[in-house]
Hints:
Oligomer: homodimer
Number of domains of chain A: 2
Largest interface: A-B, 109 and 109 residues
Largest sheet of chain A: 7 strands, antiparallel
Number of helices of chain A: 17
Helix content of chain A: 40-55%
Amino acid sequence: xxxxxxxxxxxxxLTDLYQLTMLQAYHREGLGAEAVFDLFxxxxxxxxxxxxxxxxxxxxxxxxxxxxxPAALAYLDSLDRFSSEFxxxxxxxxxxxxxxxxxxxxxxxxxxxxxxVVAPLAQAQIIETFLLNQVSFQTMVASKAARVxxxxxxxxxxxxxxxxxxxxxxxxxxxxxxxxxxxxxTSNVLAGMVYGIPVAGTMAHSYIETHDSxxxxxxxxxxxxxxTTLLVDxxxxxxxxxxxxxxxxxxxxxxxxxxIRLDSGDLAGLATAARELLDDADLGHVEIFASGNLDEYxxxxxxxGGAPIDGFGVGTRMGVSDDHPSLDTAYKLVRYAxxxxxxxSADKSNLPGRKQVYRxxxxxxxxLHDEPAxxxxxxxxxxxxxxxLPAGTRTLQQIADHARREIATLPDEPHRxxxxxxxxxxxxxxSQLR
Amino acid sequence: xxxxxxxxxxxxxLTDLYQLTMLQAYHREGLGAEAVFDLFxxxxxxxxxxxxxxxxxxxxxxxxxxxxxPAALAYLDSLDRFSSEFxxxxxxxxxxxxxxxxxxxxxxxxxxxxxxVVAPLAQAQIIETFLLNQVSFQTMVASKAARVxxxxxxxxxxxxxxxxxxxxxxxxxxxxxxxxxxxxxTSNVLAGMVYGIPVAGTMAHSYIETHDSxxxxxxxxxxxxxxTTLLVDxxxxxxxxxxxxxxxxxxxxxxxxxxIRLDSGDLAGLATAARELLDDADLGHVEIFASGNLDEYxxxxxxxGGAPIDGFGVGTRMGVSDDHPSLDTAYKLVRYAxxxxxxxSADKSNLPGRKQVYRxxxxxxxxLHDEPAxxxxxxxxxxxxxxxLPAGTRTLQQIADHARREIATLPDEPHRxxxxxxxxxxxxxxSQLR
Lengths: 434, 434
């Protein structure tokens, strides 16, 4: 399936200019040895117990197709900053490195490599911006969505965010990331087509307003879509519920409406009142669906308060990760030409060397990649010499199933992350060498 | 220039499923009269005095190309929800309506129509989700960027956000929106190519770490890019500045370095110390550029405190509009089949009828479109019968120039927004009719 956001001919230019100026300097200096870069999150934000790794599929797709087109090279030439010899180098540049990664859908913690890239310096450097762009956003949304799913305690959750997310790519990737985290469906039709996610939706307020009265609108809609959800809050919510009941009682009506939707006002109070009215009218099978500025905090409150709500539509606040709309991700050089590297700036250090993460029931261990350690290793090789390996080709359903299983095994207590003895020694050694 | 985010063959499916289920009902009911929809912002967020309208160009591009491909129709057919007669209707559906809009770059306030669509019901309804997606995000970023530019008080601002914005479309549109609001350049190379925005950038920490020592890295980079900016905080910022000074003093050096960049730590203190060191070394012409989690609040603090900083790199916090990562935008039916419409739900009402916004020195007036009122009208026709008019074809530079002029004319006091007498009478009349 075509993915225009990754497949654009000039996607190699979705990068920061400094990547190209650095590459030109490396090229001039003859620096092209093997480099290892880690993509990790520096800090897990407040109100997140863990993050859900997401975005690898787009990364691998990008790496497989990476190239500078003649049009891209002509643009770079027009900047008068790049030598023609360097532009020829770029014309031949492909990604031919190895990639190790934790499977999408895996819970991860601060400083644990989510993706490790091993490639000649230029190849590993030029891809930084795109990798961060995709993995930061998708991991952020999957992590937020996992909280929404948990708060709903088994009730249906539908992703509704496209209209107010940050552009079209965000709308697509948020639908995918939410599905990874256990959200059951999306309103985004293209996400349904591209990713095979179930799509959901029935009517908006404008449908009601187009008709002379609310009950006329309900009647007309139910005639076309009998097993539908009717939106009851366009004018007055309680009156809207009464109109649903009136419709059910009309003679010769084949009433098969499955649910009503509340989209504004005091959702708990309105749901309770609506439930009573429906039950009293022998419409106990008509479910109540709620939407409107929902997130895990509001949903937890409604569930805790016993509001008779059967499902939630969640949009903007989940898809922009409203309380933490960015993740402090980094893509850092950890090894070059056979030597571990490390940055020491204030608050922005990183762990040197090639690593493996081992998961145990109560804690993880970040170790050097060839160091034996207790636990289940999380990083697996997903690409070799620029080609995807089977581990890099999981379906979205497999990823969502994996996420569900992995999240279910996390302990309730905070999960500890330890540094292995050999990694600690490596850090000590590099610090002393400076 | 190709814009894959809008030009995707299946962009018509970048919509919520409920738009399609509503369209099918309208189609079955024979409802296809002329509808008028307004796109507006319900509330201007705290810490924003005004919003900067942005995103119209993508909207018009989308409307011009709107169609359902055979692949899109086959997907919809596979959902078993749409009749083949309705799918044939969709196959022929094009946007042939009129669009009125305030020019991109114009400051706007709550409830003022940013875009008004006049078209047969199905055409005006199906485009809702995409219009909101683009205009919400771009207006949000342009509004945030205008604050960053104001806080910098004439100092250079460069947009750095691509790596941590919400996907690729966000990275592209944020660069464009920031430029509209007065940001001078972007690090995003593809935004440079597609939009003609100046691009900027030199080196990252990984460049320094790839070399055996910081001064070796500086020397090597300056040899390739003499008039560059050197990043001085990889290991120890003050030592980094001293290394720049050492480089300048090396025999036979053609030292033409233009600036240093601070990316971490106490920016005010480090900038002051760096300025002193540079000045004492007769390097008064070397500028100081700062970056790292900056936004308008931090920049205002640095400028107020007199930090000797000549330019700012601003990334994530501007591009995700960190303090308000979404806008409360709406696209509402205001007229159908010749009659004004209005929604009354709690907190979500809208202004009925076709409207015009008139700007005056101290206040705006929202009036009916054919009502005479004081002031300069903001809405202009940009599309007729699905074709762009000259007012819908402004260049990005024209839009940025317009924004600068319009923002400069805003008063310091809060700008009042009045409802005209005829519009107030219309609201009263509709309320009584219910």
